[in-house]
Write a structure and sequence with these properties.
Blueprint lengths: L1 E6 L4 H14 L5 E6 L10 H18 L5 E4 L7 H7 L4 E3 H12 L3 E5 L2 H13 L6 E6 L10 H4 L1 H14 L4 E4 L7 H4 L8 E3 H14 L23 H8 L2
Parallel strand pairs: 1-2, 1-3, 3-4, 5-6, 5-7, 7-8
Length: 247
């Protein structure tokens, strides 16, 4: 099985970190190909940046999806996920949706812990769009400046774990989801320090992708996720242009 992991922001170090976490949880024989967005922002924190990232996801799919069985949009908030499912002829998974779906099986109340306040409402909206917000009791953020996003997990580890404690004690969370590519792996690393299940979106997406690919679903030929008809376009990258204008 071959999975394509797309980092929708432009930080290569984050791609490397998420790819390592993905491979750690992949089954024997599953190969992870990781790619970084060709354009966009250092890390995605709001709706405007997510809109840019959605374009970057489609561009990455157009250039790299050949030979893969499924793809993972590896940014919490799942930028461009619905469009990617409409665009590609294979299953596509978002790391927030995958984490929420997994949390749904482990507890009735879950909380997302993330780095910045701008992420809070966006993550809530994403859960609502997926129809998975009913059990999301809180999104807890640090609300601090992040001068170096690649060092955020180590620098703010203790504060993130304090938010986990507050989510459990004050919000009665039964599952903790660590939200965001920059803190990929923290759910695994801190599992013994938190008295409820902890989840990471990257690992959840890998395991869910393996399960769905193993079911061999056919691409949709009807409905809103069937591939759109070709139409004239302008200003797109060559690979994206071919995908849009050709059958």
């Amino acid at each position: 099985m071959k999975l394509l992991l797309i980092n929708p922001n432009v930080t290569e170090a984050m791609t490397t970190s998420m790819a390592a976490e993905a491979q750690r949880f992949a089954s024997p024989g599953t190969e992870i190909t990781s790619v970084t967005a060709a354009f966009g922002t250092q890390y995605i924190e709001n709706r405007a940046e997510a809109a840019i990232a959605g374009h970057a996801v489609l561009d990455a799919l157009a250039n790299h999806m050949g030979g893969h069985d499924a793809a993972i949009v590896s940014a919490f908030g799942d930028p461009g996920l619905a469009a990617a499912r409409e665009f590609a002829d294979m299953p596509i998974f978002g790391i927030e949706e995958s984490a929420l779906l997994t949390a749904w099986t482990l507890g009735r109340r879950f909380s997302i812990v993330c780095l910045t306040g701008r992420l809070r409402r966006w993550y809530q909206e994403c859960a609502e769009e997926h129809g998975l917000a009913a059990r999301l009791v809180s999104v807890r953020a640090l609300d601090v400046p992040i001068p170096d996003i690649t060092a955020a997990k180590d620098k703010f580890r203790d504060r993130l774990l304090e938010e986990c404690t507050r989510a459990i004690e004050q919000d009665e969370a039964e599952v903790i989801i660590f939200g965001g590519g920059p803190i990929a792996g923290l759910a695994r690393e801190a599992a013994d320090q938190i008295p409820v299940p902890t989840l990471d979106g990257v690992s959840c997406a890998v395991r869910l992708a393996e399960a769905v690919v193993g079911l061999h679903p056919r691409p949709p030929m009807r409905g809103s996720f069937a591939r759109p008809r070709p139409k004239p376009a302008k200003g797109l990258s060559p690979a994206l242009m071919r995908r849009i204008v050709q059958e």
